[in-house]
Structure prediction request, 163 residues.
Amino acid sequence: MATSYSERVATGAHPQPPPVPQHPPGPDPTRVSPDGSAAEPSIGDLVGDISKDLSQLVHDEIELAKVELKEESAKAGKAAGMLAGAGYAGHLLMVVASFAAVFGLAHVVDLAWAALIIAGVWAVAAAVLFVTGRKRMRSVNLKPEQTMETLKEDARWARNPTS
Prediction:
């Protein structure tokens, strides 16, 4: 079950990016005009603030994408390891058990028929392992969904910053 970014942050599964600094609307109290009244920020100051905020936002989005990709890569690695382990164990088991089963079954039917029956049994086992591994591999999602969602939210905000 997928959890939201805020749920992962609350449980400690995701590092929380630092908040984007918010400036109250209106004149900056640290800027004072020569007559002692509060001065309006200059265009350069506003552009600088926007630039810093945008830079922080991009940095936070990149960090979120890294965390998401790391989680999905770990899932993919585990699934691939299980597939490889199943293949190796299946091979060893097939070799040893096949000989034992063929020779055991040869007491009932001809040796060639015994070998064919055992080969069919192992084909079914290999198919089950393949289907299980493929199913787990399909559940891996390397697309950073949360990052894409927050980028869409940021774009919506940028188009209508007052809503």
